[in-house]
Amino acid sequence: MANALNAKSILTNPIHCLAFGFGSGLAAKAPGTFGTLMAIPLYLLLSSLPLMAYAVVVVVAFIIGIYLCGKTADDLGVHDHPGIVWDEFVGFWITMFAAPAGFIWLVVGFALFRLFDIWKPWPIKIFDKNMESGLGIMIDDVLAGIYALIILQGLVYVAGLELL
To answer: Is 101 exposed, middle or buried (0-12, 13-18, 19+ CB in 10 A)?
Structure first.
């Protein structure tokens, strides 16, 4: 399937379908943003879990993502193809760990994650440029998620809400 990219081949292959965020990565413009948007309904389901279960799901999604993203990139013959957005799912879920309920926090978490994912401040950019494979695809979004999580929880603290 090297270099083959069409909606049917992506959506009918379970590995590629997940890596492309159930098709959200097929967006012609801003696939990372569309991937993050697709992560929101799943986050809303996950947010009802106890924190430890949420954390376990995110770690498992990260580990599975290393395989999904690496396999899809290999099959397409393109390292970190823009349509591979499973990493955005995991990064956003990291951002939203222990976030308070409410639309405003969802919007703030989304904006912070997208900011750090696009901006790629140190050391995110170094990992993004120098790591290959599925881990390389995943790690920059994990780091962006951690940065966004720290800022989001700081805002929660400033707002006077309970942390974790």
So the answer is: exposed
pLDDT tens, position by position, 32-62: 999 999 999 999 999 999 999 999 999 999 9
Q: Give the 3-state secondary structure of residue 159.
A: coil
Q: Could you write out the three-class secondary structure of 33-64?
A: HHHHHHHHHHHHHHCCCCHHHHHHHHHHHHHH
Q: What are phi and psi of 110, to 5 degrees?
A: -60, -50
Q: How far are the Cα atoms of 45, 49, 51, 72, 145 from residue 78, in angstroms, in the given order?
A: 32, 36, 36, 9, 24
Q: How far is CA 8 from CA 14, 17, 82, 110, in A?
A: 11, 10, 17, 29
